[in-house]
Amino acid sequence: MNMPNRNQDSLATYYRWHAGIYDLTRWAFLFGRRPLIHKAAYRLVSPARILEIGCGTGNNLVELAKRFPEAQITGLDLSQDMLERARVKVQHYGSRMVLLHRFYDAPVADGSKFDLIVLSYALSMINPGYDAVLQICKSDLSATGLVAVVDFHQSRWDWFRRWMGVNHVRMEGQVLDELRKHFQPCVCEVHRGYGGLWRYMLFIGKH
Asked: CA-CA distance, 37 to 63, in Å (whole number)?
């Protein structure tokens, strides 16, 4: 992936400072994470392998492990600080939980591809490169697998988009547009946050 190293370094630095307060603050505006997993579970009875790209402090990993008790789960993140917090949360699950410290610039699957790939509020922060991430997802996804995404979508307020840009988030509808290019939608929903200050989207798609 042609993503400048300075962008990766900038995100890693951002989360170095935010890792300690992430769980205390993100619940207030990262909506739709649990509903996304529930909707994926409705369509996948027993996935054998699951990958979360940008797993952060591991909240989704725990939810995935509970929802799919037989699955082997891999969490990937570029922030070592976030992964250290995730490791504490998932240690109970032993060898069926693997954490990778790396950027998603190449496929992870080593023969057995993933039946479910989850991206939670990750793609809108990868600028540039979110389109390349989805291309790699296609290589990592099994023939019958699903990609499940929840992310920021749009805001009609310029000042809010600028503020989110300070926090590395681009929200101009680009993520949903790109998802539709790569995957056939099974679920495609757009919801309002805080009365319409912004909108976020849920997307589940297949090859």
From this structure: 8
Domain ranges, residue 91 = 5-206
CA nearest 123: which of 84, 80, 176? 176
Q: Provide the whole-model pTM.
A: 0.90
Among candidate residues 54, 183, 204, 186, the one with its CA nearest the CA of residue 121: 54
Non-local CB neighbours of 165 within 8 Å, separated by 6+ positions: none
Tokens of 75: 């969490």
3-state percent breakdown (helix, strand, coil) of the chain, nearest 5? 45, 30, 25
Contact in structure between 161 and 172 (CB atoms under 8 Å): yes
Q: What is the full DSSP assignment across 115-170?
A: EEEEEES-GGG-TTTHHHHHHHHHHHEEEEEEEEEEEEEE-S-HHHHHHHHHTT--
If one counts the domains in the chain, the total is: 1
pLDDT in tens, 104-136: 999 999 889 999 999 999 999 998 899 999 999
Q: What is the pLDDT of residues 56-84, one digit of tens each?
A: 999 999 999 999 999 999 999 999 999 99
Q: What is the CATH number of the domain that holds 51?
A: 3.40.50.150
State pLDDT tens for residues 151-165.
999 999 999 999 999
Which amino acid is present at 205?
Answer: G
CB 125 within 8 A of CB 169: yes
